[in-house]
User: Fold these one by one.
Assistant:
Number 1:
Amino acid sequence: MGTEGHSVANQRVVENLASKLRRRQVVGSRETALETVLVLRQVVSKARFSNIDQLVEVIRSVGRKLVDAQPKEHTVGNTVRKVLHHIREEYHTATQGTVLASSSKNTLSISRFVLQGQPRKQNALLKTSADAKGTLKENDPDDPDSFARGLKPVLMEAIQDVLDELETVYDNVSKNAKDHIHSDEIILTIGKSATVEAFLKSAAHYRKFTVIVAETAPSYTGHDMAQSLSSAGISTVLVPDSSIYALMSRVNKVILGAHAILANGGMFAITGSLLAASAARAHSTPVVVCTGQFKLTPQWNLYHEYGALDFADPSSVLGFEEGDLVDKVDVVNPYYDYVRPEFVDAFITNDGDHPPSSVYRLMKEAYDDEDHEL
Amino acid sequence: MSQGEPNSSPAQFDVFVTYQSILQNEEISTPLAAILTLTQLIEKSSAGTMFELVQALNDGAEILKQRTPNPISLNAGCELFIAFVTLFPHDSDSFSDLKTELVKQGRNYATEALTYRDKIAALALGFIEDDSVILTHSYSRVVMKTLLRAHERKRISVYVTEARPRGLGLRTYDELTAVGIPCTVVLDSAVSYVMDKVDLVLVGSEAVVESGGLINAVGSNQIAIIAKAANKPFYALAESYKFHRLFPLSQYDLPTHNPNVLSFPPASVSTSLPTKGAVIGSGLQKITPAEGSRSMTQEQVARNPNVDYTRPDLISLVFSDVGSLTPEGVSQYLVGMFAG
């Protein structure tokens, strides 16, 4: 439609992020989520649309582009879905009384009745959009921009909400850390998850406990984690990954970070997580996962094969200095493990603690069903 | 005035006959047939108030229930429709308008519901990998639809249980082989033997209950237990009108359980002696399919259950037209519908 004029500018920010994602210049679930919100904010602020469907299509096409650039960074798609959900919600609040009331009255049908059981967030905070009411008119032939003009302030607010959630995610996850970690406990963790780090540090304000950090070969992010924790005054032990099982009998709790959480309650997490989780299961040690809800990915991980994972640079497993070997063996270095829901006891999120079995419900609340495929 | 409703209505309008005739349509499952029957009941009913109408519906549902040997899924349909009628907003001008509106709603739903199997098949398709080996139980229309749909895109092979005593697995076998899906019938007793070769289990359902558990043709429970032991996913396919507000704690809480099922017959020579001569001598063995093969007598079959209950923790996912749900998700729907 009339988006051509501004599409160039939009294209540039989108392309920019897409290529950064493709080149792995932006990595990590929170980083990518933040970048995505910022791009979407620009896109929405410049977009021209005269009805909600056009706007949704604009956002979706941007979303598709970003997701295609790096399909393994699930939070990109999640953020787009979340923004779409918020935008629809704002749109419904803004147009309430005009569009909805007339239609919702006599549409109670049996299939609607069945849908009453559908999980939805009940506490839709009715925000201050009363001023926008009445002025919104879709597809106004005289002034096609009037709809966008009326809606944009609330949309910006909605996107700001998503941004705020991302920015406060560590604080909110670690809010209740002291209730999960008790004095003199021994905690095992693996890799360097910023969420877990914040969580442990927050608990350290209240309790004395020991953290065993597995070094997490071949990325050795466990080293940084151990350093960071010990500099915060937590008693820290760094161990090789191979001793996880042997140490598990002394461990009270395993705390893991996640890369993405799937609808069935399973998750992708740094390599070694599956090892730690299954060792924990063998010793009946509880496994808790600290994560922000922006990592909820509305996919039922169907095929958790080796190939479904993300592969990192093999040189950290076998360097080129081992020239004789390099052409004789295949070296793979998967970056993530898929951890089945049975291995996880609880997810500690920025919005409450949840068992794996209710993850799908959180997803229904957070996203709209029609956005699962962007 | 119309207190005689339950007595007088069967004279002009026999719910059971209507129900039976609707069921003639292969595509219509029992809960839908029940909804359509009750819809017709509203049309024929002379009730002048909501109270009378609901009363008439309840009576109709009761008649259906009493005359059907296995009323579980029928009940699910009746309860859904009656709950809907009670909650339907009264904004029609007259009561007869309201009735016409309800009739219209019932019919619309039935037409809409016929598309649910396609929806479910599309949903389940994503969970079937190329080259999968699928185990299914007995015959289920929605499972058939899913398998046929999967066959269009992927290579699948199917093991189907024979599902004694009705042997409906053979029907599944016939229909699948007819379209060229590699299929083998396995004995109900060979499920654990075959399980290691299987990638996933797909079963249909009679009803999905409030605990998230599944009621389905007898044998489903043992398949689920074996699947769990072998770490294979067990998926149930259920249209949302099969969500049933029931909370069985054991097999014997099912409405189909009666004192006769699993009872011990009084010991007598004719039934307790398992020799072939004795069985023939008793004159009970009417259906001998092949000479020398032994099968249960009608009486013995009658002491067996038709359906069994599968605990929710054995079920990986329930695919329904409202989405793929965990067993807990089903209970949430039920609470939302009936308690919300």
Number 2:
Amino acid sequence: MTRFLRATARVLGRSVAIFVPVFLVATFVTFALRALSGLSPANLQLGESATPEAVAAIEHQWGLDRPFLTQYADWFGDLLRGDLGTSWHNGAEISRLLAEGAVISLSVAGLALLIGVVFGFGFGVLAALRRTTWVDRAVTGVMTFISVMPSFVVGIALVGVLAVGLGWFPSAGYAPAERGFGVWLAHITLPAIALSFDTVSDVARQLRAGLVAAYRENYVTGAVVRGLGPHRIFFRHVLRNGIGPSLAVLGLKFPNLLGGAVVTEAIFGMPGFGQFAAGSAQRGDVPAVQGVLVVSVVLVVVFNLLVNLILARVAPASARGV
Amino acid sequence: MLRRIARLTTGRIALGILATVGLLAVFGPVLAPYDPLESGADILASPSWAHLLGTDYLGRDVLSRLLDGSRVSILGAVQVALIALVVGVVPGILSVYLGRPFEWLTLRLADTLVALPFLVFAVAVTALLGNGIPQAMFVVGIMVSPLFYRVARAATLSVARSQYVEAAIIAGASVGWVIRRHVWVKVLPPIAVALANTTGVGFVVVSSLTFLGIGVQPPAPTWGGVLAADLGYLSFQPWAPLVPTALIMATVWACNLLADAIRDVTGEAGRALLNTRTVRAGLSGAGREA
């Protein structure tokens, strides 16, 4: 147990050493967007015909006439306290607006992740166990096919067949969990499936490759020779050694699941994170866009931290940085 | 190398599709039988000799719109790949030679870019910095560049530690000569694979953005835009979305096939590409192998 704790601490330490700079760079870029875009709340509030004095007054009111680095320091300080500022569009607290959208997007992304893990690992293991048979070829073929289907294509097909055609699912909208678990699940299922295809195919193919490679190792032959059962060989020797890359892929998939929300939420008409991002961006509401970007970076970083910890537990070699 | 790729069946299929698509991008607007923006009296017409793919809800010829829109989609994808190539490869090679601080800095930048949900970023930046596909693709290209960075770096590392390069350096070769003479050859095949994959990724991104109507002004035709328009009239023309969908998927698929073919031909496999695969897998709904 102490060895496990020490490994965990080491992974945490290394991950933090990577993620702190990532966070700093990403937030700085995000903040610099306003200066680069040249947008100002005056555009939103006063329109095209504003006098320069009125624009200056509004910019002063928002503190935009201060030096760039002062603004950045203020913004970053607020950020660390969880304050993302107020929207230029309607003056609402961005953190509150985002929280509403994030619940929806994370529901969908979470379910998509679950589908990705269950089916990705299922198909990957299946193909690896039946390697070089028709089962393997069929699984690999299907995975390759679904990997070239953009999520909007999958989404449309699902809406067309399962929602409009058969009427099994609602075709659009979101229902909060308070209205009942079944209703909530029905609304997020189709977008989650649309979002998950990419994850399923990548995890499955990566896992298959990892497991097949592990089966070729000498220690597996050794285990067979020693008379160990197929179950024990699979779980103790093959799985633990072959699972690493697919877990790493899973970690890298998370940004996609969040980013894909922009597309799926548009198709399924869900007022989530992605719709908020697209809407704010088109309105020129810079603080809101910055909020979206910062929150997504934080989510991605936290998720990757978790994946690294699991990876260290399952495949101890990764904790040593091999 | 092209000839060796063309000897593989998959390579031939990939090259064939991509060549067709490339021709569409060049000649599509000329070939279009009608003005893609001109509305006609026939609204939502079925395919006929006058309108091979029918007309849309404003009576515009769908074939003309697809042909005319091919250029935006394809140029966008190529732009993503080329920007990622330029931004990624040079620091990737130099990170091995320019010392620890540069290496650390570029690695952290690559980590950062990979960690960002790039579709959200593309949407944000497109809207804030000027609404246009080139701006969006520029951002996406930069965000995809870590793939090239890692591929180039991995290949360079493997060469830099090889005995023949050590021998060359002992014999008095300069770093510049080593890069030109040894590193470059080693870096090219994985870059070619990455280039094919990134084009596929770029293609999905352009299609997604144009599907959402981000980065294009409304009447201008794009593949994604035609698809989005078809969806509104599913009950009249249930088959209509199939055409743009098939175009988009075939192109992405051809990019992936080409990547596989290059990998088969150059024998690029194993460790150098392990990083590539995981990074590539993190990019989008396209790219990667069986």
